[in-house]
Amino acid sequence: SNIGALDQIKKVLSKYIIEPIRFPDRKMLNYSSGIGILLYGPPGCGKTLLINAAVKESGANFIFIKGPELLNKFLGESEKGIRLIFSRAKMLDPTIIFFDEFDSVASKRENSHEITNSASNDRIVNQLLTEIDSIEKDKSIYFIGATNRPNSIDKALLRPGRIDKILAVPYPNLEGKILILKTIFKKGNHLPYLNLNLFVDSLKNNFTGADLNLAYKEASIDSIRTSVEYFLFNSSKKGIFIDRTMIIGTKNLHYGIYKIILNRKTKGQYV
Ligand code: ATP
């Protein structure tokens, strides 16, 4: 419920991750319930948010790895890190292993040009393949990667049995953006009659969920400013009740969205 739009992906995660973990007695004969999934799409569109939600909903153990953290300049250390992750995952079963910035550890083996880099990249990918293939059928290991660069992932990792599903998490469309704003708005106070359809024009920009979250933050900060002004104005007229609750109104949200657009147009000159 904290994620706006992305209904198809939520359904897939629910069907293939949350339900099998929550109802383990429904295990399939001769098939492991675990699965490999790759989420790809532009930054800020909700990949990490989706996986965090799946972890919470399922109650599984969670191993979260930022891909670049695994890279180690010392020979064999990165592979050792990968072996450790999978052996922990097997011990903790059911486990969700989430590799954010997956491309940094799974890039195509012919991709790296520098000889030393290429050799270490090959070893890391080979280790990942070995570990994924070594997951026994009775283990519930859910292996998930997220990336902004799906084309750079090694093809051998992308075959069914290793990564079974490849899911796009794209920029939200207009309807999606309104749904995301509604979700974000659940977090705080806003005018009950705030009509999000008033923002349709400004929402035609290519916003991500992260942009909308920032617009909301700007709107909240602006609402503090307007409520302080309101306080000063009223306090000069003694005896009038002053309500200092911060509520976001239409103007505040317009301001928040406008700030994001202007910041982008001026390439960071306007902050
Ligand atoms: P990156 O590729 O850079 O890791 P990401 O796709 O993993 O990005 P998230 O970290 O999931 O992006 O999203 C960033 C923030 O944007 C979230 O913490 C959330 O506040 C907001 N956000 C993104 N998508 C949504 C959504 N669909 N509903 C509500 N909030 C969203």
Question: Can you walk through the features of this model?
Answer:
- By secondary structure, the protein is of the alpha/beta class.
- It has 9 helices and 5 strands.
- The protein has helices at residues 7-22, 47-58, 67-70, 77-92, 103-106, 115-133, 174-185, 209-235, 250-265; strands spanning 35-40, 61-66, 95-100, 141-147, 165-168.
- The protein has a 5-stranded parallel beta sheet, with helices on both faces.
- The model has no long low-confidence stretch (mean pLDDT 86).
- Residues 3-6, 43-49, 100, 146, 148, 180, 183-184, 209-210, 213 line the site of adenosine-5'-triphosphate.
- Adenosine-5'-triphosphate is lined by residues 3-6, 43-49, 100, 146, 148, 180, 183-184, 209-210, 213.
Mean of the pLDDT scores?
A: 86
Bound molecules: adenosine-5'-triphosphate
Strand order of the largest sheet: 2-3-4-1-5
> How large is the share of residues in beta strands?
5-15%
Largest sheet: 5 strands, parallel
Order of helices and strands: HEHEHHEHHEEHHH
Going by helix content, strand content and strand pairing, the class is: alpha/beta
Amino-to-carboxy terminus distance = 31 Å
Q: Please give the count of helices.
A: 9
- What low-confidence regions span 5 or more consecutive residues with pLDDT below 50? none
Q: How much helical structure, as a percent, in the residues?
A: 40-55%
Radius of gyration, in Å, reads 23 Å
Number of strands: 5
Shape: elongated
